[in-house]
Amino acid sequence: MPPKTTPVVSMRTMGLPLTLLGCVLWLLVASPVFVESDTYRYASAILAIIALVHYLKMEDRPRTNLLGWLCMGWGLYVVVRFAAIYFMTPGHDLGASDWLFAFPFFFPILGVAFGLYEAQFERIVAAFFVVAVVMLVTTTHFQLIFAGETVKPLIMNNQIHGAVACGLILISASFWLLHYMTNKSSNPAFARFAYFAAPLIIIVCFIAIYGAKSKGVWLALIVTLPIVGLVALTYLRRKMGVVIIVCAAALLLAGIYTVRHNLNKTAGPTVTAAITMLEGIDDGRDVSGVVAGAIASTATPFSMDERLQLWYNAGELISAAPWFGWENQWLERWHQTRYANVQYTLLHNGYLEMLVRFGAFGAFVMTTILASLVVSVWRAFRSGLIPRAVLHTYALGLLFFAFTLLSNSNNRLAIGESLALLSSAFACWCNMRINLKPTIAHESTSPHLTAAKQD
């Protein structure tokens, strides 16, 4: 059995009001999956302040390691470069949401904030799913969906955002349920609620994702769900697991068959246009020429046509500054691109958003940070600090989100920023926990983490 886990930061100095406040703040950090607003930013800022105050009061506080310095160094680089470009350009270029890429500066201190409330997170997670049940049941327009209409799930600015949110909730609910199904030492009250709530959440999320008609989210689920199914088999007895997965897959396929005509109407033209482009590239034609031809073609669906124009423009900017990008100068340069009159400047591809602003260097640094965070969570699992369901939720949630970035700039939306802050705070907490010196340990034990040893 792994050694008992102990809080990184002692909560003895925190009274009930501050504890309750922190729990509410963490729910607000996650709130963009229900309501698209900037509330999570203010909640994160307050949590960072609370954590900083407690951290500075610690007599033997955890020292910032290489990952922490890398996160803060990158954030500082983004801010300093932004300021330099702003003051040095005649038009004082502001770009568009470029400062959001400085968020990694706050990851380490939010990791401390996570440690402050680690003993409360089983309750926070349960409260999150209470909100999920209420929001999904009350905001999903079932009648319109079954009539073939497009809907906006939850309270979002458009249907794509809602579909992404439902995908994240679906994956989280799946492993939340599996955790309680296989961890017999867990709190029975939370387990009973999970048995009731999780299946309902999963079913409604599937219905809402279908109703949103987001082809990018459908594609992300097509890739992610088989992996979720295979991982789920490791939680259950082989025969039971196979039966459950087969039945779930059969129901899903039956649902897809039932609405196949609507699916074909929504995604068919896009698939056809994409195949035509791939055939052109396979014939040896120049990629930029193939893309330009698809943009000019009347057979290309409108939404795909706009994305291709955005991606073509992004390619021009990246090729002009491939190593370090343009940061807040990119929007000024945008007006010189071939399709500058396209309706949007949101690039509808999260990876291009990074490359346009920060080039290959930025992509390398951000990839290094992400890889380090993922490794920290993996090491925390291997050390018995977190349940495997938490690891799988973290990894597969990020994988699903990564696929959605191929067709939409979700990292520039509230849901993406919130996910980055929340998941990275958790990963930084894992990083601190596995590097924790014995002298910092506190004798109290987090009940839900202790239960992880039986998982």
TrEMBL record:
GO terms for cellular component: membrane. It is a multi-pass membrane protein. Keywords: Ligase, Membrane, Transmembrane, Transmembrane helix. It is found in: Membrane. GO terms for molecular function: ligase activity. Residues 201-365 form the O-antigen ligase-related domain. The chain crosses the membrane at residues 40-56, 68-87, 99-117, 124-148, 160-181, 193-211, 217-235, 242-259, 354-377, 389-407. Its main location: membrane. InterPro entries: O-antigen_ligase-rel_domated, WaaL-like. PANTHER family: O-ANTIGEN LIGASE, TEICHURONIC ACID BIOSYNTHESIS PROTEIN TUAE. This is O-antigen ligase. It comes from Rhizobium tubonense.
